[in-house]
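Notes from the 1:1 (GR / supervisor)

We went over the backlog. Supervisor wanted to see one worked example end to end before approving the batch request, so GR pasted a single chain during the call. The sequence is below; no edits were made to it. Supervisor asked that the structure be written out right there so they could see what the output format looks like.
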Amino acid sequence: MTQLSNETEFTHEYAQSLAKEFAVHTTCNISDAMDRFRIKGGLEGILPIVDGVKMCGTAHTLRFLPAEQTEKKPWPTYIDQVNKGDVVVIDNGGRTYCTIWGGLLTKKAVEMGIAGTVVYGCCRDVPVIRACNYPVFSKCRYVMTGKDRIQLDTVNAPVTIADILVSPNDIMVGDDSGVVCVPIRKAKEILAAVNDIASKEEGIEGAIKAGVKLTEARKTYGYGELQRPRD
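Structure output shown during the call:
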C-alpha cells in the first residue's frame, strides 16, 4: 500500500475501483491528462508482446538484483501473492542478459485473473504469451533464464521502471501505444482530466465526420490546450 506524507492511505480496493474507470481510456489520452499536472507517466521503451490487448489494473511491484548482490534464496514463486486485477510490475533494472517472465507465469496469471505484466527487462516464451492472449509489456525478449543470475530483493515497495517511479496500487494502463503509470495519489484528478480530454476529442471526431475542417474543429474544442496545465 502506498502511503504519502500529509495524505490519507489509498487502499487496494479504492485503487481497483478507479482502475475500472481508467480502463475505458487510451494511454495517449491518459498521458495528456497527466501533462496537465506536470506528471510524466509514460514508460519509455516498454512495448507490448501481444498486439491488440488492453491492460489496466493496480500495481503489484517487485524488484530484482543481480544474484551476487543479495542473499541467495530459492527461486521465488512470487505470483501466488498477487491479487486478481493487479498488474505485476517487475523492476529488473532494464537488464537484457536474462529473463524474468515466461510461459508458466503467464498461464498461472491467466488462471488467477491477473490484469497483466510490465517488465523492465526481458520476457521469454513469447509463443505461449501470445497463445494465452495475455498482456505482457516488456523492454525486450530473450531466451536465457534469470535463475542463478538475478534474485528477488523487494516486494510491494516503490520501484523504477524506465525512469518512472511506480508504487504499489498505482494504476497501470497499457495498450498498443505503450504503458502509462498513474500515481494513485493523483488518480482521481487525472481521471477527471482524461474524461474531459476524451469528451473533447469525441467532439472533434463528430465535427469532422459532419464535414467540418480539422483546423476549425480543433480550434472549437481547444485541441492545442487539452494537455496544458490549468494553473
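Supervisor's comment: The domain at 12-186 is CATH 3.50.30.40 (Glucose Oxidase; domain 1).
Batch request approved.
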